[in-house]
Amino acid sequence: MNPALARSLLFVRGMVPTATTIAAVMLSSVPIGIPYYSAVTPFFPLIAVFYWSIYRPELLPAMTVFVAGVLFDIFTGGPMGLIALILLAVHGIAASQRRILLGQSFWVEWAGFTLVAAGAAAVGWVLSCGFQFAFLPPAQFAIQAALTAALYPAGSWLLGRAARAARPIGVVA
C-alpha cells in the first residue's frame, strides 16, 4: 500500500471519535418541530463523550471535547461554556473510571452512564439557574437525563459499530 494513502487512512480512522461527537452535537441541536422537544432533547454528545472516553480516550482529547461543547452552546444559544464544562467533567470522570468499566458487563457500564447523566443534569440545572438568576424547573433536566440514559444502549451500539468500521485492517477486537 502507498505510504501516503496508509497515513491518510490512519488519520481518517483516528478522526472517527471526533466526527461522531460533532455529529452528536448537531443531532442534539437540530430543531425538529415537535412542541417542547427542544427542552428535553436527549443529550447525544454526552453519550459520545462517555463512550469514547472509555474505549478510545487517546482519540478524543480534552480540546476536542471543549470545542464540541462550545459548538453545542453556539448552535443552541445556551450560556457559552456551560456544555463545554459539563462535557469536560464527563470526559475526566469516564477516563478516570476506564479501567474499572472496561472489565465489566454492559449493565455496569450503563449504570455508570446513568449516574453520570444524572450528575450532568444536576450540574447543568444548578449552573443554568445561576446563569439566569432564576429558579428553573428541574423536571426538564431530569427528563433529558432519563431520555439520554435510556438511549445509551443504542448510542453505544452505534459508536461501537463506528469504532469497528474504523479499526485498522488486520486488528482484531
Walkthrough of the structure:
- It is a single chain.
- The chain is mainly α and 173 residues long.
- It has one domain: Arp2/3 complex 21 kDa subunit ARPC3.
- It is 76% helix and 0% strand.
- It has nine helices and no strands.
- The chain has helices spanning 3-14, 16-29, 37-40, 44-55, 62-76, 82-96, 98-102, 106-132, 139-165.
- It is globular.
- 29% of the residues are buried.
CATH class descriptor = Mainly Alpha
Form type: globular
Strand content bin: under 5%
Report on the biggest sheet.
none
Annotated CATH topology: Arp2/3 complex 21 kDa subunit ARPC3
- Structure class: mainly alpha
CATH architectural grouping: Orthogonal Bundle
Query: Could you say how many structural domains there are in total?
Result: 1
Helix share bin: over 70%
Rg on CA atoms, Å = 17 Å
Helix-strand string? HHHHHHHHH
- The low-pLDDT segments are none
The average pLDDT value, as a whole number, equals 89
How many β-strand runs?
0
Number of helices: 9
The end-to-end distance, rounded to whole angstroms, is 23 Å
Short characterization:
This protein has 173 residues and is mainly alpha-helical.
What brief labels describe this structure?
173 residues, mainly alpha, Arp2/3 complex 21 kDa subunit ARPC3, 76% helix
